[in-house]
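sorry for the late reply, my laptop died twice this morning and i had to redo everyting from scratch. anyway the thing you sent over, i finally got around to it. pasting the sequence first so we're on the same page, its 362 residues, then the predicted structure underneath. double check i copied it right bc i was rushing
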Amino acid sequence: MKQGLAWEEGIARGAAIATWRLPQGNEAFLLQDFSGGSTLAEGWNLSELSAGFLAAPFIGLPYFLRADSLTTFPIQLAETTTAYTAPAENTAKKSEFMTWVAQAIEAIKQGPLQKVVVSRTDEKELPADFNVMKALEDLASAYPNAFVCALYIPALEGVWMCATPEILVEQNEEGIFRTISLAGTQSGVDLDGLPISPSQARWSQKEIEEQAFVSRYIIDCFKKIRLREYTEIGPKTISTGNLLHLKTDYIVETKAMDFPQLPGLMLGLLHPTSAVCGTPKQEAIDFISATERHDRSMYSGYLGPVNLMNATYLFVNLRTVEIKENHAVFYAGCGITEDSDPEKEWQETQMKCQTLQRVLMQ
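ok and here's the structure:
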């Protein structure tokens, strides 16, 4: 395929490359920055960026890829198998993670921390014939409602891929702004491997509370900029392949309000959201920094096209894998509250890691 050749040739000559498919889209994009991409300076402004692609780490300044070259191609959706035999649990990783969760619960009981997102990694060797562009198509087929992306930036020394359902900041060509509150997780398949209808989902008080933290955080951000005219839809249960989540949409008509700077303002206020960090934000960041032994890097940051065709689509970088040659590091996390159960939180991260593994490890 031509796009596969463009991907490989771009990497060979030091270009930064992003290729992606928007949710429910039937075409994909491939963008190249022949300079290798750049790190934005403090005080950067979203509305002042040229057409390109933005990719930010969990903590730190984002990378910007200008659109020196932009091509589109039809995404070849294919039948995908959902069968995946998960390997035996890594008992050392499980013990370590459950210790982190127990520490988080204790910290929350002591306050002022109310919620914190604890993450972990899972390392695998990919199949010898692994191909990034084919993997992108497989993910697009398996997760039609997700933003699927492959990203290479020379400074990162590896490829990052994701299949994320979570919009951080979106503004379409008609000026409609959107962000969502997405939290709470349960399996989207039953014991026989058959899909569970969202209408059949039953949510615990812990999961409802976890999602409510994120919703309140978004509304607090609106209050900081004195935005009162918005539409709130939800919460409702949505399916993202093998998982179910609770989601609430927040929509603003920026043209009617003459508020074109809203996406940039909200991006600065929202990231990192309580869906990937916690509440209060700084206390959660401090706990994560002191507890997790891995560098999150691009995991739980954000990424997506900006100012392309008068639209911006930025997504939280979830269901994430970092690839160096055939070695893959999968990232997953879960929101911890006072009512969390360490065993259940471990199982949630297992399901999240398997979101990509069940497609990429075939």
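The chain has a mean pLDDT of 94.
thats about all i looked at so far, will dig more tmrw
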